[in-house]
Amino acid sequence: MDWSLIIENSIKGFIGINAVYFAIAAIGLNVQFGFTGLLNFGQAGFMACGAYGLGMTAHYFGISMWWGIPIGIAFSVVLGFLMGIPTLRLRADYLAIVTIAAAEIIRLVVRSVKFKTYFGGSDGINGFSDSFRNIGDNIGIVQANQYGIWPLRFTGRELWTLVVGWIVVAVVAYFVYLLMKSPWGRVLKAIREDEDAVRSLGKSVFSYKMQSLILGGAIGTMSGMIFALDRGSVQPDNYSRDVTFYILTALVLGGVAKVSGSIVGPMIFWGIFTFMDNFLRQVAKDPIHLGNFTIMKSTQVGQLNYMLIGLTLILLMVYRPQGVFGNRKEMAFDGH
Amino acid sequence: MDTDHSLSEATLAARVALSGVERAPGAAKQDAILNASGIRREFGGIIAVDVKHVEIQRGSITALIGPNGAGKTTLFNLLTGFDKPNTGSWTFNEKSMENVAPHKTASLGMVRTFQLTKSLTKLSVIENMRLGATDQKGEKWWNGLFGRVWKAQEASITERAEELLNRFKLGHMRDEYAGALSGGQRKLLEMARALMTNPTLVMLDEPMAGVNPALKQSLNEHIRGLRDQGMTVLFVEHDMDMVHDVSDWVIVMAEGRIIAEGTPDDISKNPAVIDAYLGTHQGQSLLEDE
Ligand SMILES: Nc1ncnc2c1ncn2[C@@H]1O[C@H](COP(=O)(O)OP(=O)(O)OP(=O)(O)O)[C@@H](O)[C@H]1O
Ligand SMILES: [Mg+2]
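^ thats the input. predicted complex w/ adenosine-5'-triphosphate below
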């Protein structure tokens, strides 16, 4: 068993690009779900807005990649309005249904053959991120070089997106932290608890919910951009329902309604996930045989890992529903 | 009844204004802040509210009484935009209020509380109070980012909130979660929070329910205080002592309709009212009170 490899990979999982893009998406989801109580099950759709905003600059518009940032944000604002206008006046579950459906529609449209000229079909879009990569090379984080010592070793290519990614996490987290400490955030938290109470005090609940949905969505869009820049490609199937649910899991793990929770949750999620994956793979190299029954074939690692993630989530909900960083007191009174 | 109180100027003014008003359902008032006609709301087959006409005298304390299921809460919901009537029109300060969203109603100065308290249990008491203040700069997200834009206003809001909390004997609970308050304290908090909006008409749905007797007396004082500050109060109440004690005018509902109006003394002698209450539990206690 190669413990040095397991440890190195687990640490990389803990602070790696997966944790980064999950953290950004989770911060956005936290604005909607954690602070406002909006059930957005389509965060992957907002992420796709960002990724395709970047990808389409080269693939369809033929303009500089940097235009992709405002284009992606604009996509997500439009998506927010499309999903919010019909649902935000209705009961909470309508938004859930519409967001989950909208995200799937987006994925099916961008991967369709018919719209290949715009979105590249199921192959997605490649080769749009050179201007981003060049900056890294120019400031001395050269793509092909190796940086760091065990257990923190990265290629320049990995390191550059990590640096940018964590800066984005920090900036977005601070931005949301300030907002949630402000009277604006107070209105959102009040809406989460009782919309009618907020209405009776003269605030337009619909308008605040819309702002929350769009802000959280736009942050999700940035997550999609970071992910696309790291991969250097945009793939429709990276924005499936599973992604939204893993992000939600990671968010709950860290603790909802705390900005720190939406950063630490994804780190723990990917730390544990990577550790289990690497550990089980090592076990599977030398399977245990009981008669003709084999425990752990390498093909079973993936499934087992997802089962363990599910089990962890169940145990968490039972024993620590407020998550690692959540506030027990905020959870304690359930409207009675 | 309240001969032992030295009546405030506002009380006298309200009572004088109401003295000439006809003692009949739908009676016209000298100066009505709220004026409603033909309000009807059905739920399936049940006619919950069917009010031909009603006016509320500005600057008065009006009690809305009636047996359970009379339609008092539904009428509150309709007037404040939380529910839509099948038919009906009404004005507040001469402004037509049909199809006005509930939050607009509140910002026009017509604020209501709920029979089932809606204190925001996961916010602290002081945050509940601050939420009530209107026109907050920091409630715009682009301002929220910049503390220096809203901190000064927040400080003055906090000061006003603390004053109100002290008045309602909740000052010591300032930093507790509202969920830690007793049922009666939550009623008080909800009322205090509603006052943060600087309303002109305060509509209280059973403000005394669950409030302990010691506090009830001081709550009465507060309600009178609101009128003395120029507000109009409309409140739903089952406790006839309390109604007698604070109200200038009483409107009685039964089965969705207004069946009587008058001063508290008129009402307790009114046979139609006694009829409406008879057979119900409330009826017994009403009669026993007298
Ligand atoms: N949302 C609703 N759906 C169906 N029926 C309703 C609804 N709300 C109220 N009702 C019915 O309308 C009638 C009036 O109810 P309302 O709550 O207004 O009475 P109330 O005078 O406030 O009574 P209480 O003194 O018990 O609070 C009742 O028969 C009630 O069952
Ligand atoms: Mg009622």
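Chain B is about 40% helix and 20% strand.
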